[in-house]
Design goal:
The complex is a heterodimer of chains A (about 180) and B (about 140).
Chain A: H1 4-26, E1 45-47, E2 55-57, H2 58-61, E3 66-71, H3 76-88, E4 96-101, H4 105-115, E5 121-125, H5 129-134, E6 141-145, E7 151-156, H6 161-174
Parallel strand pairs in A: 3-4, 4-5
Antiparallel strand pairs in A: 1-2, 3-6, 6-7
Chain B: H1 2-19, H2 31-42, H3 60-74, H4 79-90, H5 105-130, H6 138-141
Chain lengths: ~180, ~140
């Protein structure tokens, strides 16, 4: 009994630390869950990257679901994500709005020229002030917004084919959209 | 040798002093407002480098949020209002001191539960030890 007690405590600690290691590898502890899921997207009104004299706002997008993808030319992870967007943007079945975050317009335009432009429209938030209302804390980030302007889903970090297939596509189908993405 | 050591220490200290200050040139109304600003931004977490507070972080977003907080202070908003404004956007995670509410109860009370369990264990152990060794051999007790 007396010998087994320290062993039991030791094994319990091994179990606890093992669980901690597993948990941190299975979940990304740096992800901050957004309090905005299920709530209306903040009001936004931003200039178009290609035509800065024109703007696009939240009201323009009401009536159909859309996806907002936050990117920037200075963001390395966005360059990793970009081929995935190029491959899937036409299969999503909803507009994909590019959200150029804290970026110079000339840099963003050159970046899109170089990597290709998968977006339906691109809005530019050079100061990043509107992004604060969205709870953006990095790039890339992706939001799914429904026809009534409610944020349904947020993905932090690059979109991957797996994330699109397992997390985004089922949510699009729930909205009655038929994305051309294998189940 | 001693001089070199002193210089090295000085360089190190200076280095940490420089590293830990993210000073923006914000036109505060008075010293009291600046103190309030420093105090408030120390209670808030930088979302980008999550082990830093907003006061110290050099991240671009932290700088933007400091400016936003500064402007809201100028507009006469209270600390509580500013914190709520941040929580509405980024969740409780921006607060270094999480609020006491049901979803945070495990966070607040589990240390006390563990303390209680520990005390219970110690209590049981001490009580057992206080009893004179009866059936068990006295050799065995010396292990403990």
């Amino acid at each position: 009994m007396k010998l087994y007690l320290p062993l039991a405590i030791f094994l319990a600690l091994v179990g606890l630390f093992g669980f901690g290691l597993w948990w941190n590898s299975a979940h990304n502890p740096t992800l901050v869950p957004s309090p905005l899921i299920g709530k209306p997207a903040p009001a936004w009104n931003l200039p178009l990257l290609y035509e800065p004299a024109k703007t696009l706002d939240k009201a323009d997008m009401l009536g159909k679901p859309y996806i907002v993808n936050v990117f920037a030319s200075w963001c390395f992870a966005c360059a990793d994500e970009h081929p995935v967007l190029m491959a899937y943007s036409h299969d999503l079945g909803v507009p994909l709005i590019g959200y150029d975050y804290k970026d110079k317009a000339t840099d963003a335009l050159a970046w899109l020229q170089q990597h290709g432009d998968p977006y339906t429209q691109v809005v530019a938030d050079e100061s990043g002030r509107t992004a604060i209302n969205f709870g953006v804390y990095g790039a890339p980030e992706t939001y799914l917004i429904n026809a009534r302007g409610i944020i349904l889903w947020k993905h932090i970090g690059p979109l991957t084919p797996g994330v699109i297939r397992d997390e985004l596509a089922p949510r699009l189908r729930k909205l009655g959209i038929q994305p051309r993405i294998g189940a | 040798m001693k001089g070199m050591l002193r210089t090295a220490t000085l360089v190190l200290l200076l280095g940490t002093a420089l590293a830990s200050s993210a000073v923006d040139a914000l036109p505060f109304k008075n010293a009291a407002q600046e103190v309030r600003f420093q105090d408030l931004t120390r209670q808030l977490r930088c979302l980008v480098c999550q082990n830093e507070d907003l006061a110290d972080s050099d991240a671009k977003l932290a700088k933007d949020l400091r400016f936003e907080i500064f402007q809201q202070m100028q507009a006469g908003r209270s600390n509580a209002q500013i914190k709520q404004w941040l929580v509405d956007r980024y969740g409780d995670y921006v607060l270094y001191k999480p609020p006491l509410k049901p979803s945070n109860y495990p966070l607040w009370f589990s240390p006390f539960v563990l303390l209680l369990l520990g005390a219970l264990g110690v209590g049981i152990y001490l009580r057992r030890r206080a009893q004179p060794p009866a059936a068990a051999g006295s050799d065995e007790d010396q292990d403990w």
